[in-house]
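Supplementary Methods. Inverse-folding protocol.

Structures were first reduced to a discrete structure-token string of length 547. This string, shown here, constituted the complete conditioning input.
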């Protein structure tokens, strides 16, 4: 059975402690070891192993049992290979525990004991226990409606009677290609927090990225995989658009399970197994262990869309579309500097708009007037896209007078720019807040997504471009020099501040107490997350923007 290992590598905050060498790790368990695994793609920073950084990596391997020791080292490459490693933390959701491996040594040929590799054992009293995760099989059924598929990144959150899994992406960017196409079924197996045997609802949506982000979802089926036990499949009907330009404009929907006849009979299941390869960035490497990397889908990979052939684009044009035949329409097509027509990819909602504004043309007639060679297809796809854009403008003008008050509210909130300032100890809850704000149309700066290059330049730019700064109050936040610099600069820039209490019964003192003394805070340590989140939205909308 496959097991997920989340590896957090903490570099010391001592001057010159970071490295740009190639780092690897070997995890030794009760049964076997993973083999040498290169730590390449950090989920938290684009430039890993810098000073005072916590870099998170995720691998999936055959079950080696509980971690007993690790070996970690580097190849001494780069212009500053010396590395002062503070500690390594390994989170294994299957066992519901985090193992902490203290280090505090230089991995260097000129410092410390002049060794490039170190063998570490878990600190006996430094393991953190939590409830183990369980695997869920999630089947997503995209509708047969014309243009139903999406290029966006899809996320889901599962709700039990009392618990929720938190929002997670259904797939990473390395295996995103070909998913969520029209009239397709995509199956995912994710290890998530156990919400109980009964699933009451799900929240599913996407990030509205890509050439064709609009998505028509038919339904979702979910079942918990319990080996040698009967499991129920819960069905969540949707049959609606998740699109900015369709239906009610929402890209996130809450779906309730229709109990009774819609539940599939219970059956026994076998948990899935992994293959024997590791994905590193865009390529694959074989190792001694059965390991596979997972990339967090932070950014949409445009090249995946561009890989689709012209023939595939042509197939996306359904049997009832219209091709404008006039020279005036061709003249309206955008041109590049060479005078050639620009090429476009059809939006997922283009077919439905064209059908409203033009008489349908049967496919047989279309194939007679449009040759199926790639050059001709490119030309006619561009013409169709131009017609779609003009139709979209006409439709927008018609709908403007019928816009509802809720739509106006949604438009206004989507223009706000927020920043979340926090310490690493509260990253999980802050990431959950970030995901919800993104889904609700806010522009949010969050260091896991946006931290690139010099840390201080990135921090200053984030503060300057934000209208409101949300900051998570914990004792570790107060003790962090970077957090203090970030929030002090926000005060200097006269940004509006909203404090979030993220440590139970925490009453800040010192510089943090001085800044937050007269501010209304949202206590995320009490009550339900959704209640606190709604209170946060009210507070965000209660005042005028400073910038």
């Amino acid at each position: 059975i496959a097991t997920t290992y989340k590896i957090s590598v903490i570099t010391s905050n001592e001057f010159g402690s970071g490295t740009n060498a190639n780092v690897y790790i070997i995890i030794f368990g009760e049964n076997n070891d993973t083999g040498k695994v290169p730590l390449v793609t950090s989920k938290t920073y684009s430039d890993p192993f810098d000073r005072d950084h916590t870099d998170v990596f995720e691998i999936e391997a055959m079950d080696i049992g509980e971690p007993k020791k690790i070996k970690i080292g580097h190849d001494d490459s780069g212009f500053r290979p010396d590395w002062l490693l503070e500690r390594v933390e390994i989170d294994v959701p299957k066992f519901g525990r985090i193992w902490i491996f203290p280090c505090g040594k230089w991995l260097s040929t000129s410092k410390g004991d002049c060794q490039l590799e170190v063998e570490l054992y878990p600190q006996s009293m430094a393991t953190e226990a939590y409830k183990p995760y369980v695997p869920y099989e999630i089947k997503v059924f995209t509708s047969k409606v014309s243009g139903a598929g999406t290029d966006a990144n899809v996320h889901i959150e599962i709700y039990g009677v009392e618990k929720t899994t938190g929002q997670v992406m259904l797939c990473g960017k390395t295996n995103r290609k070909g998913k969520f196409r029209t009239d397709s079924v995509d199956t995912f197996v994710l290890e998530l927090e156990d919400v109980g045997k009964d699933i009451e609802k799900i929240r599913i949506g996407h990030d509205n990225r890509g050439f064709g982000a609009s998505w028509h979802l038919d339904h979702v089926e979910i079942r918990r995989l319990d080996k040698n036990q009967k499991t129920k499949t819960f069905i969540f009907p949707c049959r609606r658009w998740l699109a900015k330009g369709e239906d009610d404009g929402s890209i996130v929907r809450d779906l309730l399970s229709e109990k009774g006849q819609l539940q599939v009979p219970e059956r026994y299941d076998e948990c899935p197994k992994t293959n024997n390869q590791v994905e590193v960035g865009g390529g694959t490497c074989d190792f001694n262990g059965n390991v596979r990397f997972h990339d967090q889908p932070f950014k949409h990979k445009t090249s995946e869309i561009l890989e689709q052939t012209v023939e595939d684009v042509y197939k996306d044009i359904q049997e009832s579309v219209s091709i404008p035949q006039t020279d005036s329409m061709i003249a309206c097509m955008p041109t590049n500097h060479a005078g050639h027509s620009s090429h476009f990819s059809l939006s997922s909602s283009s077919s439905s708009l064209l059908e409203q504004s033009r008489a349908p043309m049967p496919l047989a007639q279309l194939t007679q007037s449009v040759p199926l060679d790639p050059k001709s297809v490119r030309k006619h796809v561009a013409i169709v896209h131009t017609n779609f854009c003009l139709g979209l403008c006409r439709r927008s003008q018609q709908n403007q007078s019928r816009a509802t008050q809720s739509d106006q509210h949604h438009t206004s909130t989507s223009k706000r720019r927020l920043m979340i300032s926090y310490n690493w100890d509260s990253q999980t809850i802050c990431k959950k807040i970030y995901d919800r704000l993104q889904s609700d149309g806010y522009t949010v700066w969050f260091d896991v997504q946006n931290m690139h290059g010099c840390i201080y330049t990135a921090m200053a730019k984030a503060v300057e471009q934000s209208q409101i700064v949300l900051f998570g109050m914990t004792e570790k936040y107060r003790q962090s020099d970077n957090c203090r610099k970030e929030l002090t600069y926000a005060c200097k820039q006269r940004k509006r501040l909203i404090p979030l209490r993220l440590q139970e019964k925490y009453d800040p003192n010192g510089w943090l107490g001085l800044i937050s003394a007269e501010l209304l805070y949202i206590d995320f340590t009490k009550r339900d997350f959704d209640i606190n989140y709604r209170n946060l939205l009210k507070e965000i909308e209660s005042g005028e923007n400073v910038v």
